[in-house]
Design brief:
The chain has 2 domains: 2-20 and 179-284, Roll (Alpha-1-antitrypsin, domain 1), CATH 2.30.39.10; 24-177 and 286-348, 2-Layer Sandwich (Antithrombin, Chain I, domain 2), CATH 3.30.497.10. It is 23% helix and 35% strand. It contains 7 helices and 14 strands. The strands form 2 sheets. Strands 1, 2, 7, 8, 9, 10 and 11 form a 7-stranded mixed β-sheet that branches. 32% of the residues are buried. This is Serpin peptidase inhibitor, clade E (nexin, plasminogen activator inhibitor type 1), member 3. InterPro entries: Serpin_dom, Serpin_fam, Serpin_sf, Serpin_sf_1, Serpin_sf_2. Keywords: Signal. Residues 38-348 form the Serpin domain.
Length: 351
């Protein structure tokens, strides 16, 4: 029986959809989403200075895709270029964002447009957003923190008091129960290695199980250092959590992160084999919150943030992005995983 102890920091954890059949369009879109996810992750890690980090590319990409509906000219071209696709035509409607929920697994995405009272949006945009993404519209008074109407959204993710006209808030919530749960009685405090080589004691979960496991088939550094992938399925078999870490603890995480590609992500599913293992996994809770205002321009979305070049005339006149806030929370414990992400994009009053 193999032994796997996640006793150092993760490279990252990755929720993957388990699909036994897929069309060529679905395969292409999955590849594009992988490419965007890696680009976003690598760009953020360059500014976070090695701190613990969690990102929800799905929440960010969905918000950017929705903005395409109202973007025009080069602003739209940049959004399409970074995402790799256009939302026109409706063929992509909700395909990659809806999974069947059950008592054991629950995945929900909501999108809400908060609009300053008195501001008029083009009907074509609001109707298109509602049809493409089930977006709800809520009238708000940003200066007083008041809103009316219906729609489920996180009010605390808005930045009341700003001179805003429109705020787009996208939330993703996930709850999954392990197919085989860790027993609480097996959890004990064990050493966990930090990036600087020091150790702390953390609650370490344990189970013996047969899981999908494998080593990367690709070299990721000049010295041929590799990494390992472990897949933990949730009940229902629709989603799994993939845990990725370096096979050699002396290898810095940064050397692995910088070499990730969409091809490698796609290879994980074909390279994993069912293996009996002793699994030690930290129980953890993590939260990240940051402004994508400097991240997205580095990826190629710059016009949207410039009042002189932004073209969102398909939404309303004189709009540009002032900020793009992103907040993610995740908790991994003995019975399963809970995660929530929110991405908020604000359009201020344009003088």
């Amino acid at each position: 029986m193999h032994h796997l102890s996640v006793a150092s920091l993760f490279l990252f954890v990755w929720l993957v959809e388990r699909s036994h059949s897929a069309s060529s369009l679905q395969d292409s879109m999955r590849q594009l989403h992988h490419s965007f996810s890696i680009s976003l992750y690598q760009t953020i890690t360059q500014t976070e200075n090695g701190s613990n980090l969690i990102v929800s590319p799905a929440s960010v990409s969905f918000s950017l895709a929705l903005l395409q509906l109202g973007a025009r000219g080069n602003t739209r071209a940049q959004l399409e270029g970074v995402l790799g696709y256009s939302v026109k035509g409706g063929i992509l409607k909700k395909r990659f964002w809806v999974l069947n929920s059950s008592r054991d697994m629950w995945l929900q995405q909501t999108c809400t447009l908060f609009i300053q009272s008195g501001v008029q949006l083009l009907d074509e945009f609001t109707q298109g957003a509602a049809a493409w993404a089930d977006t709800s519209v809520v009238r708000a008074n940003f200066s007083h923190g008041e809103m009316s109407g219906s729609g489920e959204a996180q009010a605390d993710t808005l930045w009341w008091g700003q001179r805003l006209q429109v705020a787009l808030v996208n939330t993703v919530k996930f709850r999954g129960i392990w197919q085989k749960q860790f027993m609480f009685t097996n959890t004990q405090n064990l050493p966990f290695v930090l990036p600087d080589g020091s150790t702390i004691k953390v609650p370490m979960m344990y189970q013996a199980a047969e899981v999908r496991y494998g080593k990367s088939p690709y070299s990721i550094t000049a010295s041929d250092q590799r990494y390992v992938v472990l897949e933990l399925p949730y009940l229902g078999h629709s989603l799994s959590l993939q845990v990725v870490l370096q096979s050699d603890r002396k290898t810095p995480l940064s050397s692995l992160e910088s070499q990730l590609t969409a091809r490698q992500l796609a290879s994980w599913n074909v390279g994993l084999r069912r293996t009996k293992m002793d699994i030690f996994l930290p129980r953890f809770r993590m939260q990240s919150k940051f402004n994508l205002r400097s991240v997205l321009p580095s990826m190629g979305i710059s016009d949207a943030f410039d009042p002189t070049t932004a073209d969102f005339t398909g939404i309303s006149g004189g709009l540009y992005l002032s900020d793009a806030f992103h907040e993610v929370r995740i908790e991994v414990k003995e019975d399963g995983t809970k995660a929530a992400a929110a991405t908020g994009e604000t359009h201020p009053e344009h003088n």
